[in-house]
Design goal:
The protein has 10 helices and 14 strands. It has 378 residues and is of the alpha/beta class. It binds flavin mononucleotide.
Length: 378
């Protein structure tokens, strides 16, 4: 019998790929790569387990030696990194899946301790204030951020070129595309924001100039690979990592119109609790596949896609605990709840040891049409 959830299982052409369903694994940092940033056997297994998603988007991965935000997060700026990502890509493709690597440059959300003593870089020499209002599950700030070094014009061009080189490495490694992380207050969003970007040159000031860095990154990658190889994630208006935008509707309306002209693979929009209609405002401005994310469960995702409000839905925390989320949604099986305490710990515990439905403990499960309800740590 036809059901409202069937839209989730319809194939879709996205960029250079034919995705087998509309269910996307949201990018999630899990801090389990090698210190060097090379993906490990455990990472290969984690992504392989989840390969029945229409598309996997990896955890934030630095395109630059200056881009790392946290310990044990991966990179993609050396041949060793690329060799590690090739193993991930091969494992996912072996299961018939598709995978984009999320390129995440932390900018000022880094520390000299992670950068061999060098200062983090940013559009302007403005440190994020330490009045971090967010608590678990996000990584906690342990000490004040250092004041970042303002990127010179030449440094900006070099950083754009690092993204290009990283995307080329990804392509050579057999990865299907890259997603530019322009959300959550990391470097591209620092450029977009009015409190982190105080520049008066061509990279700051007006909405057009604050958008120029991200658009230049997209153009550089598209020229070196193909427009369908690049995509962008934004979180309009979100103040995570202490960024502010005096006019998010204006900024993102302009930005999304510009992205629409570029035939990128998709636009990924996170609505992190904004009090305005983020998806409804941006959807008509983008002529291409749109992914929506944050707080979705099966019924909400199907309703959104069924009503034409989006083409795909990304699920984050549901994917932590449900490697077979697609099969659970298709068969109307319950989903398992994730354990918040192991989101960012080490090893397989809370990472690759979440079982498929048949082997899961009924006490850890809930209905597929309920919001994710993580078990809070003490
Ligand atoms: C453990 C964890 C790590 C995350 N890391 C990233 C990241 O590296 N890049 C990113 O764009 N979003 C990251 N996010 C945000 C998720 O992509 C997603 O937006 C969030 O979990 C909300 O979706 P959900 O309600 O389906 O979980 C992370 C979220 C979690 C829970």
């Amino acid at each position: 019998m036809a059901s409202a959830n069937d839209v989730l299982f319809e194939p879709l052409k996205v960029g250079n790929l034919n995705l087998r369903n509309r269910i996307v694994m949201a990018p999630m940092s899990r801090h389990r790569s090698a210190m060097s940033g090379v993906p490990t056997d455990l990472n290969v297994e984690y992504y392989r387990q989840r390969a029945s998603a229409g598309l996997l988007i990896t955890e934030g991965t630095s395109p630059s030696p200056l881009g790392q935000a946290y310990l044990f997060t991966p990179g993609l700026h050396t041949e060793e990194h690329a060799a590690g990502w090739r193993r991930v890509a091969d494992a996912v493709h072996g299961e018939g899946g598709a995978i984009f690597v999320q390129l995440m440059h932390a900018g000022r959300i880094s520390d000299t301790l992670l950068l061999n003593g060098e200062a983090p870089v940013a559009p302007s020499a403005v440190a994020p204030p330490l009045n971090e209002p967010y608590s678990s599950p996000w990584p906690k700030v342990k000490r004040a951020y250092p004041t970042p070094r303002e990127l010179s014009h030449q440094d900006v061009l070099k950083t754009i070129d690092e993204y290009r080189a990283s995307a080329v490495l990804a392509q050579k490694a057999g990865i299907d595309g890259v997603e530019i992380h322009a959300a959550a207050g990391y470097l591209p969003m620092q450029f977009l924001s009015t409190n982190a970007n105080l520049r008066t040159d061509e990279w700051g000031g007006s909405i057009e100039r604050r958008s120029a860095f991200l658009l230049a990154v997209v153009d550089a990658i598209a020229a070196a690979t193909s427009p369908g190889f690049v995509s962008v994630k934004v979180s309009p208006g979100w103040t995570f990592n202490q960024v502010e935008d005096t006019d998010p509707v204006g900024t993102y309306s302009y930005l999304v119109r510009e992205l629409s002209k570029r035939s990128i693979a998709y636009l990924h929009v996170g609505n992190y609790g904004m009090d305005w209609d983020v998806y409804g405002t941006l959807r008509p401005l983008f002529d291409g596949p749109m992914i929506v994310n944050a707080g979705f469960h099966r019924a909400a995702a199907a309703a959104m896609i069924g009503a034409g409000g989006a083409d795909l839905t990304a699920f984050g925390q549901h994917y932590i605990a449900n490697p077979d989320l697609v099969e659970r949604y298709r068969n109307d099986w319950d989903v398992s709840r994730p354990q918040l305490a192991t989101y960012y710990t080490q090893g397989y515990d809370g990472y690759t040891d979440y079982p498929v439905y048949a082997e899961s403990d009924p006490a850890t499960r809930q209905g597929a049409d309920l919001p994710v309800n993580p078990i809070m740590p003490e």
